[in-house]
Amino acid sequence: xxxxxxxxxxxxxxxxxxxxxxxxxxxxxxxxxxxxxxxxxxxxxxxxxxxxxxxxxxxxxxxxxxxxxxxxxxxxxxxxxxxxxxxxxxxxxxxxxxxxxxxxxxxxxxxxxxxxxxxxxxxxxxxxxxxxxxxxxxxxxxxxxxxxxxxxxxxxxxxxxxxxxxxxxxxxxxxxxxxxxxxxxxxxxxxxxxxxxxxxxxxxxxxxxxxxxxxxxxxxxxxxxxxxxxxxxxxxxxxxxxxxxxxxxxxxxxxxxxxxxxxxxxxxxxxxxxxxxxxxxxxxxxxxxxxxxxxxxxxxxxxxxxxxxxxxxxxxxxxxxxxxxxxxxxxxxxxxxxxxxxxxxxxxxxxxxxxxx
Amino acid sequence: xxxxxxxxxxxxxxxxxxxxxxxxxxxxxxxxxxxxxxxxxxxxxxxxxxxxxxxxxxxxxxxxxxxxxxxxxxxxxxxxxxxxxxxxxxxxxxxxxxxxxxxxxxxxxxxxxxxxxxxxxxxxxxxxxxxxxxxxxxxxxxxxxxxxxxxxxxxxxxxxxxxxxxxxxxxxxxxxxxxxxxxxxxxxxxxxxxxxxxxxxxxxxxxxxxxxxxxxxxxxxxxxxxxxxxxxxxxxxxxxxxxxxxxxxxxxxxxxxxxxxxxxxxxxxxxxxxxxxxxxxxxxxxxxxxxxxxxxxxxxxxxxxxxxxxxxxxxxxxxxxxxxxxx
Lengths: 357, 327
Hints:
heterodimer, A: mainly alpha, globular, B: two-stranded antiparallel sheet, two-stranded antiparallel ribbon
């Protein structure tokens, strides 16, 4: 039963299995185990990033092509919910319209970009997605009547999901069951379903073809698989999942702006998580997101401390300032691509396989 | 190569685009101003893109970090020009040019030196692996941009034109900025030197042969990798030069400018055909003209006009206007 649920994709490492179960338990009971607003925010962000990163891994890790437009689709999902809720009012209908509209736009856009750029050669894909994404980002901040421009949009959700809603008068297990908690469990359920769906996709015959294309494009074509079709389908699917992750983000924040969902920094985060967690493993996305997001909130404080401690040496202090967070992220990224290409999951699996022999 | 061997159709695209928009412009003088602006922008983009396209053609290296050298060149120029205030402030043309020249040379030298290090530490370990190349050079781009922020600060820095280069001259009713004419001249000079090196020297012969068929040149006993390092360094230096000119064109520099221009040069080298210098020139001129025309006619769609241009060209010639053999 469990085996079927995770599509026969076993962790293949005891340590990894323990980590995954721990992560699942931690996320499932996060509001009760880790009290406080910040902890719940981190947990919700882990859920959102888990879907976003896993969907990117379908493209980068399984199909072997790089897209820089992933945050564009993430943003479309978030803007879909934001714009629909803003115009149609805080109803479930508006939410559905927003999500479906965003999915439709994502489908059309990713199909167009994919078919167009993958038709010629896969290497165009990275460049063209970069161009399209940057044009889209500028467009989103310019169309201020629709998107709220740089300020973004704040909006209301159905009352059940708003923080002022309370299901019971008294706290359950010391935690008030309010709209925020219900939102969290909505995200949890959606994230779990999407992750299992992704596992199903990558372990299907379709997923095997994608991996074959990643390993040897020419051979896959020679066996009789239309590489263009498979690559395009993979990029469309990954875009749709990213769009749903964006909708999750908008539901959680009840706000969306260009910096929260479209910025290049998020793209960098996603790239780093995929590489650190382990390219070509859905579990890597899960473990990576959790580690990264916890580290992010923690390490930036550490950087601030280090920067203040080295205030006597201005250059060093400037290097360590929390504003230069992206610098260290970049260094970490380059180093992990060089020395750690299989990521955490890859390492754990290799270690487990060696022990078995 | 005789004249008859040259494929002329793409060459005609540039005047065709310029003439096609003429009826929409209202007055011919506006058209002339915009056309000169577009050509100037195109020439600057060409200076930057030519290095990138050769690097790809020669070693199949797709450098997403090319933009760093643009920003680096521009920021070095702010420092150099800033320290030569009485030369740039003078209203004699020759003194201004004397100020701009060392700024360009220093920017090229710095960008070239950093390019050497970039090639050694970022690009060399991942030869032949496209996926990792894209990831690594993107990482290098982020690191470079952040280091520029550490050195020069994250804010926008003004890069004013020297006195005598400001303002414009009138050709009939049309105002043409002097600096744009200078940009066209410098761009044409760079193109001429490149054509000369590529077609008339031994090293140029090796580069062209390497782009066509790397293994064959290697089997004849030439170390194509050394040639490649040279091309990479020159390409970075040219990006630095282009950065100075772009900064002077915009009259200000921001650390993110590398990433912004990067998008344009990707479109240019895709239009031109990866590896082709002539294609890069045509692509750059088309992109420069298109950006200026649509910026005037319909600013909101200007963003997507270059992408639309690329789509149209690729539908016509899927490998770019001048496809390079064996790719």
